């Protein structure tokens, strides 16, 4: 699969119009239904290649877009979500500098 191509598992005659938020591979047990004893086998069946991880991130992005950004009356939820994500990211990258400015009761 080259950049910009459809996934190999996608068949337009079977699946209809292409949806970038959908996984077209073989269906597996959802994570919420996995028992603790089966967790290792379930993780072993995941595809961990860089292209598979990129595809998962892309599907998550498109699902977020379909749920929060694309509806007619989307509201301000996506703006708050992006703001909180940016605040968290910048706090994490600046944490080593911030931890030296803690106020302690006893010195």
TrEMBL record:
Pfam families: WRW. One of its GO terms (cellular component) is mitochondrial membrane. One of its GO terms (biological process) is proton motive force-driven mitochondrial ATP synthesis. It comes from the Eukaryota. The chain crosses the membrane at residues 76-95. GO terms for molecular function: proton-transporting ATP synthase activity, rotational mechanism. Keywords: ATP synthesis, CF(0), Hydrogen ion transport, Ion transport, Membrane, Mitochondrion, Transmembrane, Transmembrane helix, Transport. It is found in: Mitochondrion membrane. Belongs to the ATPase F chain family. This is ATP synthase subunit f, mitochondrial. It comes from Drosophila rubida.
